[in-house]
From TrEMBL:
<feature type="binding site">
    <location>
        <position position="64"/>
    </location>
    <ligand>
        <name>a divalent metal cation 2</name>
    </ligand>
</feature>
<dbReference type="GO" id="GO:0046872">
    <property type="term" value="F:metal ion binding"/>
</dbReference>
<keyword id="KW-0479">Metal-binding</keyword>
<feature type="binding site">
    <location>
        <position position="231"/>
    </location>
    <ligand>
        <name>a divalent metal cation 1</name>
    </ligand>
</feature>
<protein>
    <recommendedName>
        <fullName>GTP cyclohydrolase 1 type 2 homolog</fullName>
    </recommendedName>
</protein>
<comment type="similarity">
    <text>Belongs to the GTP cyclohydrolase I type 2/NIF3 family.</text>
</comment>
<feature type="binding site">
    <location>
        <position position="103"/>
    </location>
    <ligand>
        <name>a divalent metal cation 1</name>
    </ligand>
</feature>
<dbReference type="InterPro" id="IPR036069">
    <property type="entry name" value="DUF34/NIF3_sf"/>
</dbReference>
<feature type="binding site">
    <location>
        <position position="65"/>
    </location>
    <ligand>
        <name>a divalent metal cation 1</name>
    </ligand>
</feature>
<dbReference type="InterPro" id="IPR002678">
    <property type="entry name" value="DUF34/NIF3"/>
</dbReference>
<dbReference type="GO" id="GO:0005737">
    <property type="term" value="C:cytoplasm"/>
</dbReference>
<feature type="binding site">
    <location>
        <position position="227"/>
    </location>
    <ligand>
        <name>a divalent metal cation 1</name>
    </ligand>
</feature>
<dbReference type="Pfam" id="PF01784">
    <property type="entry name" value="DUF34_NIF3"/>
</dbReference>
Amino acid sequence: MIVQDIVDYMEGIAPIELKESYDNVGLMIGNKKDQVKSILFCLDCNLEVINEAKLKCVDMIISHHPLLFKKPSSITTETLQGKKIIELIKADINLYSSHTNLDSVKNGMNDTMIQLLDLNIKDAYIMDKSSSSIEKAGIGRIIELTTWITAKELCYTVKEKFQLKNIRFVGDLNNKITKIALINGSGQDYFELARNLGAQCIITGDTTYHFVSDYKEMGLFIIDVGHFSCEQPLFKIISKNIEDYINLKDPTVKVFFSEVEKEPYEIF
């Protein structure tokens, strides 16, 4: 198996045309003709993960968040981004990233959140449909439940399914909820759309004070799982599906899931 084989498969399940205009996805660093004998999946390609990849003799890293989100004007060891790029090149490690295209696509990050929460739903549809020709793709999902659930019960479910000790929330725990907006990662740019679509609750990560304060006043219940805690379990589920494909095509390729990446925030 070569890098090109991985690229073709990744772009088959999450076409690049589905990425948001501000995003940068695809093969970030590498040679499409390189042989791939081992792959490491991670949410973020940070220095710890790169060191982990080197220790495990990995040929290729597949991350959700792109290292080259903002294209550098120079590549030197004087910047964090430059250090990462140089370390990858020196270690001959290819890097591929699938970001908002993977969020948007059918059976991508958003749909995997529906799967993980495993609520009793009667309908689900896309919040912000993609302008591409690809069907059933777009950012965010609205789910309608078969019967109402209290906000408190929903908080318990989110904590259990995402395996978290605590979550942040805004609103009345006694609220009865039947319609929920799901936006993996940082979703507050879609709050108004979610409200206009009739969502009574939004589950996302990376919310900020003024946004949640305003939407609390408007009556929405908001669950902030945290960016890492929201996306890492979803990406791992998808990564395991990719592993199944790789094992089918070439059983000799070793697949790893990062053991060093973790939630950057800590509670004191």
